[in-house]
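in:
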């Protein structure tokens, strides 16, 4: 978080404590490979948490979902 975004979050008069946010990281890289998407999400997550928002973060690739950029990802190593 930048100094300015930290200042804005600290000085905010809004109450977001009743909000929840769910971030779904849809990177194609399996754990534990570094995800640049996660780096971007971490900035938004930090801002939300600083403002009292309850945040959950899910990395889709860590779950049994056959996804990707081809019509049938089971032909490329995915089980389902």
């Amino acid at each position: 978080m930048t100094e300015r975004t930290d200042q804005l979050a600290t000085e905010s008069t809004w109450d977001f404590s009743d909000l929840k946010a769910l971030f779904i990281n849809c990177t194609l890289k399996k754990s534990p490979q570094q995800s640049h998407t996660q780096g971007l999400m971490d900035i938004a997550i930090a801002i939300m948490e600083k403002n009292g928002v309850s945040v959950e973060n899910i990395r889709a690739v860590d779950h049994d979902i056959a996804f990707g950029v081809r019509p049938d990802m089971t032909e490329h190593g995915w089980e389902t």
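note: The longest strand covers residues 20-25.
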